[in-house]
């Protein structure tokens, strides 16, 4: 989207509210709902989609007043960034806007956690992307493997970055891919497992690109995996902990998240598969002694997942029910109980070779 | 002034009904039961005797009372109490009886409501003084006829009569009574049970009195009069049939001069007419023309059962002298200066033995209501029996129990104990059932408890209306402040987005907020009117009117 178009959208938002004030009406912003009630699962595309339910943020409702004011401050600051052609991190945005409200001891923002969700609100209310508002998040996630990425004129050979790999920025739109020599992409939940596989040179021995999400995958990481899959037609395999949280990370990578359902098409990788950890692995590899008991919060989460329409595949229902039944979870690193090399030399090659994976 | 003069009775009349009962020895043995236990309580009792004597005398004579009490510390636990009033004065021939003879005064023999039901009377003060100091009391009095008497007297305990030590008579035009008495083994303090609090509460219950108090440190407090209306003197009345019990009827039947049960009933009971007697006759198995002295227990029971089936007029209220809602309100405003007050005087009811009573209750919130304890403020319960403050034995008192039995949370008072609240309850009756001879604590009579609870719930409901209005006003204000606070930032953000004038946006935004808040106020006011009309009786505390109707309904 052109900068001028984004500026005019922001100006229009301010203009409508100002008109409402001049008419002594009720100043409000309409924002598509981002709760489960307004999320639909498109089974055909295997993606989450945002419905058309709207919520209204009204300034005169004291429960909304603060957020309303904050949303407008963010909008005005973004207009400034776009006009000046500067891109700021969402943390910089927070610091630019944070100050004491005149005549009070209250701050406009107390914590970045207040401004971050409002940025998403603004994105979907206006139908623009975060990067179009000239905002970026911190780098999160790492990539390593035989691929060369062109970034603003520089060529980065991702197989020659030592053990660190490439730090994935929040915006990857400008990346160009060159010299790809990989058969698939392996997405790994934990940084520690990623490090283990790097040390074992798994990516070189098995000719793949490895990406670590370091917990829940950030937008940049998801977008990059999406592009590797869509543009280079590389299959994507996820490797997470065998617990509801790991499975949810997988589902977000695959089908999109509720919070960013409006961007699922850009961020999701519906053809992704999950190699492990699964409940079957426990029996297959004799890992009973290195499981951990489910906590109440884990059990609660399992039940929540079982309600989500995108967890209704029979394989998933079976996996989650088995977890409930066994009452245990299994971490990726539990494989180290065999040997440090076991995961790289036996577990992954065998399962991927034989296609023992969940959809 | 003219009407007041005409109402003044000559003092001689007031003393016609004196009947003596020898209780000097009784007093010596039962000091504790008569209010003379404890150092503080004894002093408060002395002040009580002086003040009630003055108030009752003024009331009966139709005088607006002006009472002064001064307490001087002479030594450790040794005080001098000086009391003065502008009452009718005491005729010479009665002085020795009033101050020098332990009497069960008129109120013990008539079905009349008098403050003096508490305590043993002013002669008790004489006796207490002489027991603790060995000194006589000094009285100066005049009926306003130009003769003033100054007398020093003690009580001859064995003969129960005054022992006059000195008597002076001189000519002066002045009316009233002064009393000067020394006490040992007593203690003054400003606690809730001390003389100061006693006088403060007396002032609230007697808005027609002006009371001046000078404490041992010379601090003078004047409780100004807030009403010029002198309460009507109470009269003796007959017993109401409802609530009359079998043994009461038997006892009365033994002393009546009537020759027939029918005329006995008509003469003895209030609201009992010949028509009512005929109704009773239909319900009983014997002839009501028989001699009342021959009535058997079973027959009396039949009469009582018959009475229960028949409607009677409510008991006459002439015997009961309520303070009155307006008077209480004036006094509460005068002395407590609260943010909010609600007062109710309930219609008369009867308790055991057909004795009429009524309950008055008030709630005061904020201002000087409540009792300051340390840094905090606590609620206070002011108990009164026939306008006389009850300061002792609060725990066992039906009034305290009634107050505590009300769920104040329902009326918007979250922390009743720690709120700036004064609860006022005055129980008015020709006979108040006290738990002991100390007369500081009302016994838990079912009917009385019920009425007190209704009275308290009624003022509670009024408080609730006030409180929810106040809370909504506060909420509105808070809301407005929130909106105004954010409007500055909002206007600045909008100005940057639209390139429009920030001041203009802010001004319109502030106008808009003002308009909305005012709109809410109007809406609430409209809702409020509708809400009050309905004013629901709360579940579980709903007033059972059926019984009340039975009594109040006209024949």
Please outline the helices and strands.
The complex is a heterodimer of chains A (359) and B (555).
Chain A: H1 3-22, E1 28-32, E2 39-42, E3 47-50, E4 54-58, H2 62-84, E5 88-89, H3 90-97, H4 112-126, E6 135-136, E7 142-144, E8 148-151, E9 154-157, E10 166-167, E11 176-178, E12 184-188, H5 191-199, H6 202-205, E13 208-212, H7 219-232, E14 236-239, H8 244-255, H9 264-267, E15 273-276, H10 279-284, E16 292-293, H11 296-307, H12 314-326, E17 328-329, H13 342-353
Parallel strand pairs in A: 5-6, 12-13, 12-14, 14-15
Antiparallel strand pairs in A: 1-4, 2-3, 7-10, 7-13, 8-9, 8-11, 16-17
Helix pairs in contact in A: 1-2, 2-4, 3-4, 11-12
Chain B: H1 2-7, H2 11-14, H3 24-30, H4 39-61, E1 66-75, E2 78-85, H5 92-100, H6 122-133, E3 137-143, E4 147-156, E5 161-171, E6 175-184, H7 195-205, E7 210-214, E8 220-223, H8 246-255, H9 261-268, H10 274-283, H11 297-309, H12 325-336, E9 340-345, E10 349-351, E11 355-365, E12 371-373, E13 376-378, E14 380-385, E15 388-390, H13 398-405, E16 421-429, H14 446-498, H15 502-534, H16 545-552
Parallel strand pairs in B: 1-7, 14-16
Antiparallel strand pairs in B: 1-2, 2-6, 3-4, 3-6, 4-5, 7-8, 9-11, 10-11, 11-16, 12-13, 14-15
Helix pairs in contact in B: 5-6, 7-12, 8-11, 10-11, 13-14, 14-15
């Amino acid at each position: 989207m052109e900068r001028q178009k984004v500026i005019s959208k922001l100006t229009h938002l301010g203009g409508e509210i100002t008109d409402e004030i001049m008419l002594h009406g009720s100043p409000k912003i309409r924002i598509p709902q981002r709760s489960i009630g307004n999320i639909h699962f498109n089974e055909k595309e295997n993606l989450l989609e945002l419905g058309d339910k709207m919520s209204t943020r009204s300034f005169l409702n004291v429960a909304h007043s603060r957020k309303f004011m904050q949303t407008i401050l963010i909008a005005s600051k973004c207009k400034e960034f776009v006009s000046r052609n500067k891109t700021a991190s969402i943390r910089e945005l927070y610091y630019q806007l944070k100050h004491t409200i005149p005549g009070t001891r209250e701050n406009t923002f107390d914590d970045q956690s207040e401004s971050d969700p409002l940025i998403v609100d603004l994105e979907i209310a206006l139908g623009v992307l975060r990067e179009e508002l000239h905002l970026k998040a911190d780098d999160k996630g790492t990539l390593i493997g035989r691929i060369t990425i062109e970034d603003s004129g520089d060529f980065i050979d991702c197989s020659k970055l030592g053990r660190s790999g490439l730090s994935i920025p929040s915006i990857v739109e400008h990346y160009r891919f060159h010299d790809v020599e990989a058969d698939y992409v392996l997405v790994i939940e934990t940084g520690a497992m990623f490090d283990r596989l790097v040390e074992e040179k798994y990516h070189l021995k098995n000719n793949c690109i490895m990406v670590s999400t370091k917990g829940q995958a950030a937008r940049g990481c998801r977008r990059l995996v999406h592009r590797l899959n869509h543009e280079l037609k590389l299959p994507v395999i996820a490797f997470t902990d065998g617990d509801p949280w790991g499975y949810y990370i997988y589902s977000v990578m695959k089908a999109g998240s509720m919070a960013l359902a409006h961007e699922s098409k850009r961020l999701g990788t519906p053809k992704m598969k999950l190699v492990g950890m699964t409940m079957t692995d426990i029996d297959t590899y004799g890992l009973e002694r290195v499981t951990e008991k489910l906590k109440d919060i884990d059990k609660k989460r399992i039940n929540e997942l079982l309600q989500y329409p995108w967890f209704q595949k029979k394989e998933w229902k079976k996996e989650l029910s088995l977890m409930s039944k066994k009452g245990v979870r299994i971490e990726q690193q539990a494989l180290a109980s065999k040997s440090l090399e076991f995961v790289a030399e036996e577990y992954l090659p065998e399962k991927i070779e034989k296609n023992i994976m969940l959809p | 002034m003219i009407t007041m003069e005409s109402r003044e009775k000559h003092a001689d009349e007031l003393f016609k009904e004196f009947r003596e009962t020898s209780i000097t020895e009784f007093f010596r043995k039962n000091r504790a039961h008569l209010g003379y236990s404890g150092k503080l309580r004894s002093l408060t009792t002395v002040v009580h005797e002086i003040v009630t004597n003055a108030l009752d005398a003024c009331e009966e004579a139709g005088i607006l009372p002006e009472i002064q009490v001064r307490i001087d510390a002479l030594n450790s636990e040794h005080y001098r109490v000086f009391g003065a009033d502008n009452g009718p004065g005491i005729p010479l021939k009665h002085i020795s009886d009033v101050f020098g003879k332990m009497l069960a005064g008129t109120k013990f023999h008539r079905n009349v409501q008098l403050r003096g039901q508490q305590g043993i009377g002013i002669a008790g003060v004489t006796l207490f003084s002489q027991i603790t100091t060995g000194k006589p009391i000094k009285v100066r009095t005049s009926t306003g006829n130009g003769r003033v008497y100054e007398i020093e007297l003690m009580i001859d305990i064995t003969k129960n009569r005054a022992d006059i030590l000195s008597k002076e008579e001189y000519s002066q035009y002045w009316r009233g009574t002064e009393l000067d008495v020394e006490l040992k083994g007593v203690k003054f303090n400003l606690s809730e049970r001390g003389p100061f609090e006693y006088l403060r509460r007396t002032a609230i219950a007697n808005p027609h009195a002006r009371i001046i108090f000078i404490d041992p440190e010379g601090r003078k407090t004047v409780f100004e009069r807030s009403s010029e209306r002198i309460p009507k003197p109470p009269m003796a009345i007959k017993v109401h049939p409802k609530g009359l019990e079998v043994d009461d009827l038997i006892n009365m039947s033994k002393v009546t001069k009537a020759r027939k049960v029918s005329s006995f009933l008509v003469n003895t009971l209030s609201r009992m007419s010949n028509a009512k007697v005929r109704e009773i006759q239909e319900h009983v198995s014997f002839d009501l023309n028989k001699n009342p002295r021959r009535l058997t227990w079973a027959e009396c029971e039949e009469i009582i059962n018959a009475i229960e089936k028949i409607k009677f007029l409510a008991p006459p209220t002439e015997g009961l002298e309520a303070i009155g809602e307006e008077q209480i309100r004036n006094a509460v405003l005068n002395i407590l200066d609260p943010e909010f007050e609600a007062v109710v005087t309930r219609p008369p009811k009867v308790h055991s033995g057909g004795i009429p009573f009524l309950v008055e209750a008030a709630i005061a919130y904020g201002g000087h209501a409540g009792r300051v304890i340390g840094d905090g403020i606590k609620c206070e319960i002011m108990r009164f029996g026939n306008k006389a403050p009850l300061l002792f034995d609060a725990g066992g008192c039906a009034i305290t129990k009634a107050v505590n039995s009300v769920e104040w949370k329902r009326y918007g008072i979250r922390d009743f104990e720690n709120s700036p609240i004064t609860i006022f309850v005055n129980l008015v009756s020709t006979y108040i059932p006290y738990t002991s001879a100390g007369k500081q604590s009302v016994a838990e009579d079912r009917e009385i408890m019920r009425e007190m609870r209704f009275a308290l719930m009624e003022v509670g409901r009024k408080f609730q209306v006030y409180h929810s209005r106040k809370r909504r006003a506060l909420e509105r204000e808070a809301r407005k402040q929130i909106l105004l606070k954010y409007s500055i930032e909002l206007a600045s953000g909008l100005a940057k987005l639209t390139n429009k004038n920030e001041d203009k946006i802010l001004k319109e935004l502030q106008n808009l907020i003002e308009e909305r808040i005012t709109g809410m106020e109007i809406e609430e006011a409209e809702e409020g009117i509708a809400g009050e009309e309905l004013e629901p009786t709360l579940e579980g505390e709903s007033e059972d009117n059926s019984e009340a109707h039975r009594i109040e309904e006209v024949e």
